[in-house]
């Protein structure tokens, strides 16, 4: 089986395809790619998955044996920490050993650009075509080790408005989901009046036998703990720390669309960060309304943070993100950062002096209501892809009695209704899954539209 990179790196099952032999082949191809462009320095990091530090050492050895200056993280670090160090240490590129939010059976190889963000498709393509083309060089173990987390946390602290966390004693619950951000929120808030209560904060290569993905179904403990501790907010981060999940003071999960909206408003209004805004096609219509009111240019892209990161490199972007809980800030690096997102949510709550539920109500009063749900449906074979292709050719005129005013074919098929609500169909490119996204101004409309959407799909398992 050939090694293929997906939208966010190469991921495979440990001891099946993800082996020391294959990782070294990928590292050799990556080294040759960088050398072909005159590069000579890389940084390497790793998450807490099974044997991640050993795979990272193999990568460091291959690069060192190819004559590279190599800086290896001295401990588990997050993906945004690795990306930050790629930029700060003037590395040509970086490598992160992680499978992000995949289950414990997987590990992966992410490539980061020297600018501190996801590798471009051109970089990935060149590395991919070089895999297995030449012998792997091993044997040189001459590299430097550095604590990436220490520098990363200090950088995050520099973004905080001075004194905002020293006005009142409050509690926040942090769930790193046994992942790369264990202890980091507590470190970032050291010396403040914020008491950080940690759960799932020990290394577990099995991630408690759950997906280390910060979505509602995976964080019931966090939701209960916030209420039990009477905390201000709950913050969850995925396995490699580039995504965030938010729980309000009532123990309710704040959907990722609202997470985007809250962070956008905080960034442009409270932080006064200059620049445009970037969102994927699956992101809330409230963003459009905010940009119109605030006079900010809005860029819309296909689904995937790599498109957002590309805009950060080409345009002046204040804030950008996607529906999956990955958000980037113009004052930081062109990378998703889950821990920074959590800090910004907490800073926003403290600045407003209101509970998160009330802040959300204020947003709805100003920009209108929006309720959201996403379903990932298993379908037979290429049934999902066929449905999307059919809908691209034969547009629906109305759904659940609501008229369609516009169709967006940027990525999949998105039907935009007269009330600004929308329904998006996207077929997975790697598995038999059809993704259905719905956002509507009324809660009951979400379920009604979803039910109609599912009727279009036969043979659901």
Helix content: 25-40%
CATH class of the domain at 10-151: Alpha Beta
Number of discrete helical segments? 14
Cα-based radius of gyration, to the nearest Å: 22 Å
Describe the global form: globular
- Flag low-confidence runs: none
Strand coverage percent: 15-25%
Keywords:
single chain; Alpha-D-Glucose-1,6-Bisphosphate, Chain A, domain 3; about 450 residues; TATA-Binding Protein; six-stranded antiparallel sheet; alpha/beta; globular; six-stranded mixed sheet
Molecular structure report:
The protein is built from 14 helices and 21 strands. The protein is of the alpha/beta class. Among the domains are: 10-151, Alpha-D-Glucose-1,6-Bisphosphate, Chain A, domain 3; 371-455, TATA-Binding Protein. The strands form four sheets. The chain has a six-stranded mixed β-sheet with strand order 1-5-4-2-3-6, sandwiched between helices. A six-stranded antiparallel β-sheet has the order 16-21-20-19-18-17. It has a five-stranded mixed β-sheet with strand order 8-7-9-10-11, with helices on both faces. The mean pLDDT is 95.
Q: What's the helix and strand layout?
A:
Blueprint: E1 10-13, H1 20-36, E2 41-46, H2 52-65, E3 69-73, H3 79-88, E4 93-97, E5 106-113, H4 121-130, E6 144-146, H5 148-159, E7 170-175, H6 184-188, E8 194-198, H7 220-228, E9 233-237, E10 244-247, E11 253-254, H8 256-270, E12 276-280, H9 286-294, E13 298-301, H10 305-314, E14 317-321, E15 327-329, H11 338-352, H12 356-367, E16 371-378, H13 383-393, E17 398-399, E18 402-408, E19 413-417, E20 422-427, E21 433-440, H14 443-455
Helix pairs in contact: 1-2, 1-4, 3-5, 8-9, 8-11
């Amino acid at each position: 089986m050939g090694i293929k990179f997906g939208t966010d790196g190469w991921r495979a099952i440990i001891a099946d395809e993800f082996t020391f032999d294959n990782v070294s082949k990928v590292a050799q191809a990556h080294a040759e790619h960088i050398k072909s462009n005159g590069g000579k320095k890389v940084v390497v990091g790793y998450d807490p998955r099974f044997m991640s530090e050993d795979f990272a050492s193999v990568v460091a050895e291959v690069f060192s044996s190819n004559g590279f200056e190599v800086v290896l993280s001295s401990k588990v670090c997050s993906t945004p920490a690795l990306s930050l160090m790629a930029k700060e240490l003037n590395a040509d590129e970086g490598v992160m050993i992680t499978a992000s939010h995949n289950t414990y059976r997987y590990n992966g190889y992410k490539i980061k650009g020297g600018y501190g963000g996801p590798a471009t498709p051109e970089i990935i393509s060149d590395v991919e075509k070089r895999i297995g083309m030449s012998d792997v060089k091993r044997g040189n173990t001459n590299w430097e080790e550095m604590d990436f987390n220490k520098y990363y946390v200090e950088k995050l602290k520099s973004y905080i408005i001075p004194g905002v966390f020293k006005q009142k004693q409050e509690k926040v619950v942090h769930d790193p989901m046994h992942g790369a951000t264990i202890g980091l929120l507590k470190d970032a808030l050291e010396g403040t009046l914020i008491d950080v209560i940690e759960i799932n904060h020990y290394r577990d290569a099995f991630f408690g036998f759950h997906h280390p993905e910060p979505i509602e179904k995976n964080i019931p403990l966090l939701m209960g703990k916030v209420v039990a501790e009477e905390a201000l907010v709950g913050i969850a981060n995925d396995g490699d720390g580039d995504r965030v999940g938010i729980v309000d003071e009532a123990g309710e999960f704040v959907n990722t669309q609202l997470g985007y909206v809250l962070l956008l408003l905080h960034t442009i209004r409270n932080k006064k960060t200059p620049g445009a805004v970037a969102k994927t096609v699956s992101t809330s219509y409230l963003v459009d309304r905010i940009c119109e009111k605030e006079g900010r240019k809005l860029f819309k892209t296909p689904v995937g943070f790599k498109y957002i990161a590309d805009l950060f490199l080409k345009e002046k972007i204040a804030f950008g993100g996607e529906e999956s809980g990955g958000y980037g800030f113009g004052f930081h690096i062109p990378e998703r950062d889950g821990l920074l997102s959590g800090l910004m949510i907490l800073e926003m709550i403290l600045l407003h002096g209101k509970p998160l539920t009330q802040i959300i109500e204020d947003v709805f009063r100003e920009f209108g209501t929006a309720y959201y749900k996403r379903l990932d449906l298993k379908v037979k074979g290429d049934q999902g892809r066929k449905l999307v292709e059919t809908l691209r050719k034969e547009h629906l005129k109305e759904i659940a009695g609501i008229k369609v005013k516009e169709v967006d074919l940027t990525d999949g098929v998105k039907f935009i209704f007269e009330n600004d609500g929308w329904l998006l169909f996207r077929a997975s490119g790697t598995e038999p899954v059809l993704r259905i996204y719905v956002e509507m101004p009324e809660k009951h409309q979400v379920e009604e539209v979803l039910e109609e959407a599912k009727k279009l799909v036969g043979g659901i398992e």
